[in-house]
Give the backbone structure.
Amino acid sequence: MRFATDFKDYELIDAVNGERLERWGDIILIRPDPQIIWNGEKKDPRWNKAHAVYHRSSSGGGYWETLKKVPDVWSIGYNGLTFRLKPMGFKHTGLFPEQAINWTLADKLIREANRPIKVLNMFAYTGGATLACLNAGASVTHVDASKGMVQWAKENAAASGLSDRPVRWLVDDCMKFVKREIRRQNKYDAIIMDPPSYGRGPDGEVWKLENQIGELLSETAKLLSDNPLFVFVNSYTGGISPTILNYMVKTCFGNSSNSTVYTEEIGLKVTNKNIVLPCGNTTVWIGSDVNG
C-alpha cells in the first residue's frame, strides 16, 4: 500500500467504531467511514475537542454538527500547494488527502521527463492533481462536470500562486469531452482520471463506473501522444476489483515489455494505531522510456 508521509497539515489521528478523527490544519473533525469496522476505546482526548462531527441520516446523506466555531473557509498546505477547505454535504471537505501520494508521483515523473508535458486531468474535482502537475512545470487541461468544483480548483490555484500557469479550466462531461478531443486530434503526454462510482454530468448525463469505465479507458487511450509519460486511474468502488482494473488499463494503454503497469491500494496512516486505512486504489501506467 502506498501512503503519503509528508502531509504535515493533515493527520488521521485515530480510527475506531466507524469514525475518523482528523486534523485539517488547526481544525479537528470527526467523520464516518464504512471501512472502519473494528471497535475500540476512544482514548485520544481530541475525540472530545472536535470542532465538528458529521452524522449520517437514516434516510440518506447527513449533516454537520458544529461543536466549536469552524471558519467558512480555511486553508492547508502540501509541498508548496495551498488548498481551501470547507465542510460540505455528504461529509466532504473539498480534498482527498490520500491522493497526495499520487500528486508526489506525478510531480516526480514530470520533472524527470525534462521536456514539455501536456496533462489531461478528468473528474478533476478541486484540482489537487492539477496543481501538482502545474507546479512541476506541465500544462494541464482540467475537466469536471461540476461548475462549482472547477471554480474551487481555480481558487486553489490562485492560493497556490499558480494562476499564471498554462491551464484550461473546463466544465464538461468527461466522456463527451474525450470524444471531441479525438475528433480534434488533440494529444496528451499524461492522463489522470478519478471517476466516481456514480455521478451526473452538467446536462444530467448519468455516469455509472461499472457500465462506462471500459469505454472511457479505450477512448481515452486514443488521446495519448506518441511519447506518453504516464496514466493514473483511481478507483473507489468495490464493483470493479483492482485486478480487473489493472487488466483493463493494460489492454487499453498497452502492455509492452518496456512499459510498467501496477495497481496498489492507497491509504492514510493512522497516527494512534500501527495501521494504514485503505482509501481506494490507483492503477499506474508508465511509458516505456520512463524509469518508474
